[in-house]
């Protein structure tokens, strides 16, 4: 049951699905039935209670054994005491994969019940995910765990994510959706008494749909095996790990959540560094990293960074944050400053680094030109440029145009700079920061509008500059790892 490489095709592309324990309970397993009614997957609701003859227009089977087809994927949502009996039925029925949605095992102090489940799975060919988990979200395979999660090739992305927390699984999915980041595969693994987090890594390494692999991990039965698998992937694709239970209180909480040894966080950090994995400090850093890799932003070549802003306060704050993070903010070359000075007057502006364009920087073409000129300066290897979309209506009045027109000009000019940087420039990373200016409905509407339209141009928007600094620093460390692996540095 513990082969190094598992054929996950029936899991990610199931043709048949049994939902065992589906009932009229709105928060139970019936959601898997609802979610796949129009998916093309043949769904079989299963419930031993004779009062259930039909669910969502589908006939209800008394046992999985009664289903005429072999089952690619079973969802087990029966009460915890009945799970061992369901697994016993798999001895008489071909069930290739099963998700144990049910909770209440070792994480709740029921070690005896979990031992019974473990004993049962040893006697069947089925591979198990869970217990205490949501299962699999695979848009391209029309597979999901919530009826409201979109599926289909049009929403399929390039991020694969494995999480021991169902809550963090859904949160990561929904939040990244809002930033224009979509998923290749998401797997909520819970206690992972059979398939562990690292069992999916060989698949992700070769999966053409996966550009980056993310993990939320609280514990593992074999940390060395996990990191060994990670080390096989990181020279090819980035692996981002958010480790839950970093402090003493969190450490105890993770042990009770998954029922496994959480592991020393310092040791995790050391092992991850050796394996080339990127450790995310928290959720915010995790999603910024996944966003960065999903959009395939060029990795930083060094820690030398330029900052371009409109206003001294923003410029200084950003410079302080990056300098405190260990970044170098070198002065720009005289020719760079001279070129900017051709169209930005020396009035409430400064062209050293950070670059403060003053109010003239609110002219979309001027701002974009300045970013493009700075991107060609050999003194820096990355740029953070700041646009406050919440202020678009304010600025547009000065230029006698609707705010929508001002926004469109800003987007078009910035998109042109990004394209020019990639094709005829130095192809250095350009990071767009839209800091929070206000949180009224109108300001938030402009932020969402700007973010979505920039995403459609292939340019992500990063919210908090302090989180962005940590994210860039970790991307730079990964770049150094790749240089070492590929012989770029000795």
What does this structure look like?
The protein has 490 residues and is α/β, with parallel strands linked by helices. The chain has three domains: 1-132, NAD(P)-binding Rossmann-like Domain (Rossmann fold, 3-Layer(aba) Sandwich); 133-296, 3-Layer(aba) Sandwich (Rossmann fold), CATH 3.40.50; 306-459, Rossmann fold (3-Layer(aba) Sandwich). Helices cover 39% and strands 16% of the residues. It is built from 17 helices and 18 strands. The protein has helices at 9-12, 30-35, 83-89, 111-121, 166-178, 201-206, 223-233, 248-258, 265-275, 283-294, 312-324, 334-341, 364-375, 392-398, 403-423, 441-456, 465-486; strands spanning 16-20, 42-46, 54-55, 58-59, 71-76, 95-100, 127-129, 135-137, 156-163, 183-188, 212-217, 239-243, 278-280, 306-309, 355-356, 383-386, 430-433, 461-462. Strands 8-10-9-11-12-13 form a six-stranded mixed β-sheet, sandwiched between helices. A five-stranded parallel β-sheet has the order 2-1-5-6-7. A five-stranded parallel β-sheet has the order 15-14-16-17-18, with helices on both faces. Strand 11 (212-217), helix 7 and strand 12 form a beta-alpha-beta unit. Helix 14 (392-398) packs across helix 15 (403-423). The longest helix is centred in the C-terminal third of the chain and has 22 residues, at 465-486. It is elongated. The two termini are 42 Å apart. The relative contact order is 0.08. Mean pLDDT is 93; it is low at 253-262.
